[in-house]
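Async update (no meeting this week)

Hi team, since we skipped the sync, here's where things stand on the single-chain job. The sequence we agreed to prioritize is pasted below, unchanged from the tracker. I ran it this morning and attached the output directly underneath so nobody has to dig for it. Comments welcome in thread, and please keep replies under the output.
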Amino acid sequence: MDEVKYVSGETRIFAIVGHPIEQVRSPEMITAELVRRGHNAILVPTDVLPEDFERTVAGLMRVQNLDGLIFTIPFKQAACALAGILGDQALKVGAVNAMARNRDGDWVGDIFDGIGCVEAFRNRSLTFEDRRVMLIGAGGAGRAIAVAVAQQRPRAIKIFDIDAKRATDLVEKIADIDPRIDASFGKPILENVDILLNASPVGMLSDPRAPIEAQQIPSDVVVFDAIVKPELTTLLTIAQQSGCRTIFGREMMRGQIKKIVDFFESRGGKADLA
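Output:
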């Protein structure tokens, strides 16, 4: 009988929950990091409809060999209500993208998107300090990115989201973090912008749209897209054709993978992650 070597009855399970789910890169990247560290563990993609989210995840949290969860679009904010304990970033952001079961059986939640974005820029020797930032998207990932960027002392952050209240709430959050930042709500602009960040789902998978209405971007603007699939989104295509420096969603993902696995290890699973 044929056998595979990457899963067994002793394998510890982690799940990434989202809808849709086919765009995620976490299963292969985080599983690789877990295995590299010597763990018999696997991250499984799990597609859950929004109306089934609370019931399905509550059931998953009762699975005895499940040690952690990752949340992607559109569940990062809803996941906060499921965590028994929230970390510092999650408390500031109001969203969660990772939860781990600690040794007491409690679920601890935190968010690493913003940390990953800042790390991606740092790895390219780029800084947010004294820069003018345009952020599109104020959902879970957008909130995490805005909070992390605000802690890097930018000169200005303008935020756009189709949900104006969600965006203006985030503007107020930035003002609380650092009142010196010129924080505002407004439609995506390219004038007087040093860094353009897309944290919206526009451009994901087979969506050919860009989150801005422009076929040209000033070449001195740095353009980042949090989307990981496709890697080269319409926005990044326009940016590259315009001569801009571009940063990919996979770079943000890489920036947070080690920190997420550190989080899973430090909170302690029931088996060899303890």
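Quick observations from my side:
Residues 268-272 have pLDDT under 50 and may be disordered.
The longest helix spans residues 249-267.
Reply here if anything looks off.
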